[in-house]
Amino acid sequence: MADIATTLNAPRLRVGVPLPLGAYEYSGGLNLAVFSRHATQVSVLLFDAPSSAEMPCHSIELDPTQHRTGDIWHVWIEGLGRGAIYAWRVDGPYQPELGHRFNRHKVLLDPYAAALVGTDCWNFACACGFDAASPMFDLSFSNEDDIQWQAKCLVSDNDFNWQDDRRLHLAWADTVIYESHVRGFTVHPSAKVTQPGTYLGLIEKIPYLKELGITAVELMPVQEFFENELVRNNPLNGKRLRNYWGYSTVAFFAPKESYASRREPGGQLIEFKTMVKTLHRAGIEVILDIVFNHTAEGNESGPTLNFRGLDNRIYYLLGDDRRYYKNYSGTGNTLNSNHPVVRDYILDCLRHWVMEMHVDGFRFDLASALGRDAQGNLIANPPLLERIAEDPILRDVKLIAEAWDAGGAYQVGSFPGQRWSEWNGRFRDDVRRFWRGDIGMLGAFANRIAGSSDIYQHDGKQPVNSINFITCHDGFTLNDLVSYRNKHNEANGENNVDGDNNNYSDNYGIEGATDDPAIEEVRLRQIKNFIATLLIARGVPMLLGGDEFRRTQGGNNNAYCQDNETSWYNWEHLRQHSEIFRFTRQMIALRKHHKILRHETFYTAQDIRWLSPRGTTPQWNSTERTFGCIIDAPDSIEPALCLLFNAGQDEVDFVLPAILNGCLWRIVVDTAQPTPHDINIPGDEPLLQKQGRYSLQNHSLVILIGG
């Protein structure tokens, strides 16, 4: 039998069972199971309280002859259940040159833990498995016990009243995505919510999302991460920088504790589920941005939190010298995601979020990294990606791939499997370049608004495989895209070398904010052009949260470490820029009103006719910056639409074709017109006075409807 710490009330143990992994209640006790192939000793630590300073009330060393089945270590403990707090210690070889980094002095989190406690006491510096002061660096061995600096695992209570909540299963063609950050969405005082920066705070903004017309929120990472892992200060004001975005996951099953309004054990589970249920009642789906390409443990100099201390050689892609990590994530390590053990872990995690947390879909950060083998080569048919797409539990959830990684892979249009939609980076770049006025962009821009058939059709995919976006969390906001020619990331403390240099942006005369009315006029017009383009294009539109009221980051295009007013939503901008909010809301409504813009198939030659300003077929490789198209509904039930685009600096007189059946053109949108004439609601579109021509102003987009 296992050795038990000497206490007056030592728990009664049984061998337990190897599956399921993690914590599992049955027969009046708790079964704990964890994977480690190369460990020589495994111990369970039990705690009376969530405080990280508490020493364990019991330390149970597992006997490998009884409590091990294959590579799974397991034990059943009588009387434990919901509310139990635990962690692991794992011993084995510390041989970095062979890929082994076991350290019995480091407390490890269960990768299957559905909730953590004590995350506010984290200190990653104390979690390193080596002696940082040693000249041998990570080849040395740390004897420092980090128990007071490590969070703990909580056995969660799953008795939540979902009230028959079900995932919504909204069609891709009807989806409008709003990418946002849980904390940043409501933490600013101007949000005027009772629970700022939390899951419950987001609930208070649901009426706003409904008014805007959003059908899905895509939340930046909510899986547990450590916001204070950075050790740099802002060189401009000396304040500590924080991991704001959260792309540095510690516990993949666990929602972030600090995003709950109440700091009580398990409160984050209740509040996250309440958020999901309430969003569903409002008809809004929940998509999670999830980061399986790497973990918070980083490279060889990083902390030992869970995977590294459980079995480093299994969980990570290692170099030929196994001391070092392959880095296709740009953050130090890459998960060995196509190893069968890691593959099963990722599938179990996704199922957990779908079954227990009721989420509707996932956006996979740097998803191309999930298609690499143990040597780092891209696989033609990656087993993990196929398993996710074909898994019977995940079969109907929304799957979105960021179809590239930091190792040079770029798979937009060729990401494996037809179930996956993709962030269409070419849509972002081509639309930006067209409206900036770059020469030779007519053909590329036409392809983007028509669903990117040149990218997707050859592989049997459809427009809904394209997630169209102009801006996202990574890069300029829409306001900054038309206000800055260059990034301004000095506050990040990296000498402005971080962040993308290829932003395809412009400032139209002055860098940054200005009161110049002429510059403000063109910026306002360009913002409307971008929003309108996004919402008329076939595919699935994704709006960056706050773009609808000109949220700015002051030119910072990599605000990952700015947990402050640089990143937070200042809701005063909604009052100041209500014109943009109104335009965005009505453009979303226009998209929903005209089914022809949302078809799941590509346009045919009978559906769309392309026009030059002279009424002829455009010369796609010309130096012109103006063209248009007529979209005819194939069933002739919907009225025809005429779309006109002028990215040049001069007014263009555009020849319009006559409409069949005696219909006349009416004006739906003209971004050159002042509000409220920039967009007209259905049924109120004014008649175009000169039916054969339209005077298309510089930097403007026009939508006409036949009626």
TrEMBL record:
Q: What biological process terms from GO does the record include?
A: glycogen catabolic process
Identify the domain of life.
Answer: Bacteria
Q: Which UniProt keywords apply?
A: Glycosidase, Hydrolase, Transit peptide
Q: Domain Glycosyl hydrolase family 13 catalytic: where?
A: 179-591
Which InterPro entries does this chain map to? GH, GH13_cat_dom, GlgX_Isoamylase_N_E_set, Glyco_hydro_13_N, Glyco_hydro_b, Glycogen_debranch_GlgX, Ig-like_fold, Ig_E-set
**Could you tell me one molecular function GO term of this UniProt entry?**
isoamylase activity
Family note: Belongs to the glycosyl hydrolase 13 family.
Q: What is this protein called?
A: Glycogen operon protein
Report the source organism.
Nitrosomonas aestuarii
